[in-house]
Amino acid sequence: MSLSCPFCHSTEVMLVDASTQQSNTTLSSLVTPTTLGALGTTVAKSFNLPPIIGGIAGTVIGSVLNSFTETSAPPPQNLCFCHNCYQKFPTHLLH
Ligand SMILES: [Zn+2]
């Protein structure tokens, strides 16, 4: 496999380790069952509901959202970065 950019055919191509990509971690670290549980408790208080109801609802919603973001996350793949045209592309485009 020769490293040459499929866009500009430059050889200034660098492999990028996909495990260092931080695409989905921000969302899933924000949307945790704990966070939503606390949020649900706050919402329940403002509606004069027992806080435990909001806490449970928030935790359930958080778990559902979490499993959704996990399953919808794309499989990790190695990316290449071209230093000439600044394009990122999967390694299978290399030829
Ligand atoms: Zn390029």
| Distinct ligands | zinc ion
Using DSSP, what is the number of strands?
3
Estimated structural class: alpha+beta
Helix content: 40-55%
What does the radius of gyration come to? 21 Å
Strand composition percent: 5-15%
Low-confidence stretches at least 5 residues in length (pLDDT < 50)?
A: none
Number of domains: 2
Distance between the amino and carboxyl termini? 6 Å
Q: Order of SSEs, N→C?
A: EHHHEE
Give the strand order of the largest sheet, numbering strands 1, 2, ... along the chain: 1-2-3
DSSP summary: helix tally: 3
Query: What is the 3D shape?
Result: rod-shaped
Main pleated-sheet profile: 3 strands, antiparallel
Q: What's the average pLDDT? A: 80
List the helices and strands and how they pair.
Blueprint: E1 13-16, H1 25-30, H2 33-46, H3 51-72, E2 79-82, E3 88-90
Helix pairs in contact: 2-3
Residues 5, 7-8, 10, 82, 84-85, 87 line the site of zinc ion (ZN).
